[in-house]
Specification:
With 211 residues, the chain is α+β, with helices and mostly antiparallel strands. The protein contains 2 helices and 8 strands; from the N terminus they run αβββββββαβ. It is elongated, with a radius of gyration of 35 Å.
């Protein structure tokens, strides 16, 4: 009877040893797998990696001289930028004012186009950018009572410009710029023609986004 008990205890002890050895082997295997796994990265993966592509947008104010008179416009747009330097800036600007030299008539000018440009040293807090805007323009005329005058002027314009830009925050940039608008049109109404539509401009605004 005693011999039988000893055999049972030996069998149980042998079984427990086998279980313990098995657990140790599994632990060593799992540990080696964990340490063999490459280090984790916080970079998010996408199906389509945009790489160096970034986008930002914002409003601006533009002062423009038409027939030697100052006209104020408000606008906004969005920028697609590559490598923080090469950009295309889609814009639309509206101007509402009296017709220069003809204050009894009002006019509304809409400018919509795109600027192709380059940003110099965008990593610096203060840097420069330059570009050329290609735009379609449309001017409508109204009498002082609001009645539309059927004599619209449509024209194409080319406007080189240069800007000073400041990186204020990671996602905020301010800029101040100047340029010259060259108007291309054969229309002439109330002294509004290619000569009086061509002239100096000043603009300022801010941009928000991923620079």
């Amino acid at each position: 009877m005693i011999l039988k008990l000893e055999r049972n205890e030996f069998s149980t002890l042998f079984f427990m040893k086998r279980v313990l050895v098995s657990f140790c082997i599994l632990f060593l295997i799992s540990t080696s797998v964990v340490f063999a796994e490459p280090s984790q990265s916080n970079d998010v993966e996408y199906f389509f990696d945009t790489g160096k592509l970034s986008m930002f947008a914002g409003p601006y104010t533009r002062l423009r001289f038409i027939n030697n008179s100052l006209v104020v416009g408000m606008g906004g747009g969005g920028i697609i930028c590559w490598d923080h330097r090469y950009y295309i800036y889609g814009q639309m600007t509206t101007y509402d004012s009296k017709v220069p030299k003809h204050n009894e008539i009002e006019m509304g000018l809409v400018n919509y186009g795109a600027t192709i440009g380059y940003i110099f040293f965008p990593q610096n807090r203060i840097h420069f950018s330059t570009g050329v805007q290609f735009a379609d323009n449309n001017i409508i005329f109204r009498e002082s009572n609001g009645l539309k005058i059927d004599n619209d002027i449509k024209f194409f314009s080319i406007a080189p410009e240069i800007n000073v830009e400041a990186n204020v925050f990671k996602y905020l940039r301010l800029y101040l710029g100047t340029g010259w608008h060259f108007a291309i049109t054969d229309d002439n109404y109330l002294d509004i023609n290619h000569k009086t539509l061509s002239g100096f401009s000043i603009n300022w605004g801010f941009l928000m986004g991923e620079f």
